[in-house]
């Protein structure tokens, strides 16, 4: 991700959209912790990106289980 081009959560959401496109429905996305470590972002930023995808109907967040491709 290049700094200064867009909000970090939007940039991460774009990356996750691309990853989700290659996933089967029901497949689990990486955990919030794993995404924080992989991209050097805060938990708040990662959760905001995931929430954006959930609002778009691309993923479903199941508390305690993870985030799944719809």
Question: Care to describe what's here?
Answer:
The structure is a single chain. With 70 residues, this protein is mostly helical. The protein has a single domain, classed as Arc Repressor Mutant, subunit A. The chain contains 3 helices and 2 strands. A two-stranded antiparallel ribbon has the order 1-2. A hairpin with a 3-residue loop joins strand 1 (59-62) and strand 2 (66-69). Helix 1 packs across helix 3 (43-55) and helix 2 (32-39) crosses helix 3 (43-55). The longest helix has 14 residues, at 8-21. The protein is globular and about 30 Å long. 17% of the residues are buried. The mean pLDDT is 94.
Helix and strand arrangement:
Elements: H1 8-21, H2 32-39, H3 43-55, E1 59-62, E2 66-69
Antiparallel strand pairs: 1-2
Helix pairs in contact: 1-3, 2-3
Summed up, the domain count is 1
Specify Rg, calculated over alpha carbons.
11 Å
Largest sheet: 2 strands, antiparallel
The second-level CATH architecture is Orthogonal Bundle
CATH class: Mainly Alpha
